[in-house]
Amino acid sequence: MPRIDDPREMAPADARELSKVFFQRLRSLTEGTAEYQYVRNTLIEMNASLVQYAVRRFRTREGCDIEDIVQVGTIGLIKAIDRFDPARENEFSTLAMPYITGEIKRHFRDTSWAVRVPRRLQELRIDIAKAKESLTSELDRSPTVADLADHLGLSEEEVIEGLFAANAHTSGSLDAPQAAPYEYGGGQTEGHTLAEVMGEDEPAMELVEDIQTLAPLLERLSERERRMLGMRFGQELTQAQIGAALGISQMQVSRVLNRILGHLRDSMLEDGPQATGRAASVR
């Protein structure tokens, strides 16, 4: 295998092509060996730009620590590397982006507060939780507000404020059953969940936006390029099958498809920040 001094400095196009070689080699190695670790670590570094790309959309999020998000996204990248099968002839980024963004969204889901509260109250919530645990063991009962205030050296009003703030850390589940009115028969009927009575985003709207954005871009492609896209994503033919149908090599098909997809992705990004998510799906 070639030795790469600084994989993170490679151009994206070079990293994509070399990653294919490294993935083929990785699948032939025994896990735990020194060469396996080298190849796997090099793949992580060569594709680190995918994490940076995914993190961009979260940079303006309030209370977001970019370094933490990059680390979380890298976990998703590693999972994608471990699960990628080069025999399927799919682009690695197609598998990697959902893993990366999924880990980031899971991080926000698990660490974000349902309602934003001051840092002082967030820290007070932790102190109260520790005091409750300590006093419950010491007193052999649940501590009162007065007990907590005395233990923490705070006023009862401050403790009450902290207890109210703790309620903002989680929110009610949309799947929780809602109370139903009593029927004439006297028994309480089974209620609907809150999600069933609330409006929701229409999943197809994003598809409509994608089509509206892509349509004029596809019209600018040559007939041959549109045919190749149709064969690859419409008929789901492999690159080898496309090459056989068009009388060219699989490598030529790969280069042309990469060029077309790169052009479409860059063109969609020119539409502004709202197109960032759609551009990622074209990778």
From TrEMBL:
Upper classification of the organism: Bacteria, Bacillati, Actinomycetota, Actinomycetes, Kitasatosporales
GO BP terms in the entry: DNA-templated transcription initiation
Record keyword DNA repair present: no
Listed PROSITE patterns: SIGMA70_1 (PS00715)
The name this protein goes by in its record: RNA polymerase subunit sigma
Annotated keywords: DNA-binding, Sigma factor, Transcription, Transcription regulation
UniProt xrefs under PANTHER family: RNA POLYMERASE SIGMA-E FACTOR (PTHR30385:SF4), SIGMA FACTOR F FLAGELLAR (PTHR30385)
Top-level taxon of origin: Bacteria
Domain called RNA polymerase sigma-70: residue spans: 68-81
Pfam families xrefs: Sigma70_r2, Sigma70_r3, Sigma70_r4
GO molecular function: DNA binding; sigma factor activity
